[in-house]
Amino acid sequence: MKKMVFVAALVLCPLGLGVASATAIPAESNRSAAVGDVIAKVGDQTITFGEINTMLNSSAIVGVSIPALGTPERDTVRITLLDKFISANLLYLDALKQGVDKDPVYQQEVRRFADAILAGRYWDLYLAGEVSVTEAQIQEAFNKQAAPDAELTDQTRMQIASKLRKEQRKAQMAAAQKALRDQVEIRVHEENLAIEGDAERARDAPLAEVGGEIITWGELGDKIVGAGKGAVMADPLAMEADARRAALERGIDLRILVQKAKAAGVEADPLYQRRLAEFKKTRLINRHRERLIAEMEPSNGELEAFYEAKKGRFVVPEARKVQMVVVETQDEAESLKAGIEAGEMTMYQAARDHSIAVKAKQDLGEVGWVSQGELVPALDEATFSLGPGEIGGPVETPAGWHLVTVQDVAEARHTDVNEGATRELVRRSYLEERLAAYTVELRKNEFPVEVYEDRLVQLAQREADMVKVLTDKSQQPGSVTAERIKELQKFLGPQ
Question: Which of 207, 229, 302, 492 minimizes the number of CB atoms within 10 Å of its CB?
Answer without folding.
Answer: 229
